[in-house]
Write a structure and sequence with these properties.
Layout lengths: L1 H19 L9 E4 L4 H16 L4 E4 L5 H9 L5 E5 H8 L8 H16 L1 E3 L9 E6 H7 L4 H9 L6 E3 L1 H5 L4 H8 L8 E3 L2 H9 L5 E5 L3 H5 L2 E3 L12 E6 H6 L3 H5 L8 H12 L5 H11 L5
Parallel strand pairs: 1-2, 6-7, 6-8
Antiparallel strand pairs: 3-10, 4-10, 5-8, 5-9
Helix pairs in contact: 2-15, 4-5, 14-15
């Protein structure tokens, strides 16, 4: 009997010691960050709510900072994932030249991060938050302008066009000068107004401009009934958002990649414009907008 008791005690001790070492098998909390502006806060909150509903344990680090903050944070394991833009990674982190094809840009940054930084790019959204030229809907219809080539032909025909832009677009090589060279177009410099981006939307709405520079997924485009002219010669850089995740996290959660890839497929340009509008124009919180979107697509209850 004593021998049996001793054997049982030894077995209990072994199980107990194994349990003490079980921490190595515990799943890590996924630290999800974002940049501190509307679209990023929506994407970050959407990811957090979706993964929580799927049973993942997550930590909210949304609004942490711009790429200059987030990149070092993901490299040092301070955060585990955030949504990055392909063009940003290409030009800011890789220091490469502008790429205007979404697939090419994505393939370049994906390969670089996997090989160099142990970071995995998941699927990218078709939305492209790049520079755009905007006009009032009624003007595009009246003047027959739907593409930048149409605008170039309109100007070449002798029509004057008042253009509003921020100073970066006027000075950057991937801005006004490059656009004019690509489309063989020349804006009258006396009719160009330099202003903050937010003011270009208001000035266009109030008929103080004919064309304004903006960003492709800005919610004000839909709210103010603007048309974004098609970049039919593919001049502007591509900025497709995609979740980027530390490989250790994907290894710890084998289903995470497939789960997260459900989101980018739903995020076209018009969709992100509308989501951003609900925050910037309608005054809703990013968390509210993200929750409603997930429920609409039956991704959470």
């Amino acid at each position: 009997m004593k021998k049996v008791l001793i054997v049982l005690l030894i077995m209990m001790l072994v199980v107990s010691l194994a349990g003490c070492g079980g921490g190595s098998d515990e799943k890590p909390v996924i630290k999800i960050a974002s940049k501190p502006w509307t679209e990023q806060l929506i994407l970050g909150s959407m990811t957090i709510q979706y993964l929580e509903a799927k049973g993942y344990e997550v930590e909210d680090r949304t609004g942490l900072g711009e790429t200059a903050v987030l990149r070092p944070a993901i490299h040092s394991d301070e955060i585990d994932m955030y949504w990055e833009y392909t063009g940003t990674a290409l030009m800011v982190n890789m220091k490469e030249e502008v790429v205007t094809d979404s697939v090419e840009c994505y393939d370049m940054v994906k390969a670089w991060d996997e090989e160099t930084n142990n970071i995995q790019w998941l699927d990218y959204a078709l939305a492209n938050n790049t520079y755009t030229l905007m006009m009032r809907n009624e003007d595009t219809q009246e003047k027959g302008i739907q593409t930048i080539t149409d605008l170039a032909e309109y100007i070449k025909a002798g029509n004057e066009v008042r253009l509003g832009s921020n100073i970066d677009f006027i000075e950057r090589p991937d801005g006004l000068d490059g656009l004019e060279a690509k489309y063989n177009i020349k804006f009258n410099r006396d009719l160009i107004s330099s202003m903050e981006v937010g003011l270009t939307y208001e000035a266009l709405k109030n008929d103080q401009l004919d064309v304004a520079m903006g960003f492709g997924t800005d919610g004000r485009i839909a709210a103010m009934n603007f048309t974004t002219l098609e970049d039919d010669e593919a001049f502007f850089p591509v900025y497709n958002p995609a979740p980027i995740v530390r490989k250790e996290i994907l290894e710890a959660y084998p289903d995470l990649e497939a789960d997260l890839n459900q989101l980018p497929a739903l995020l076209g340009e018009k969709v992100l414009q509308e989501l951003n509008k609900k925050v910037d124009v309608d005054g809703l919180e990013p968390e509210e907008v993200a929750e409603a979107f997930l429920k609409e697509h039956n991704l959470i209850d």
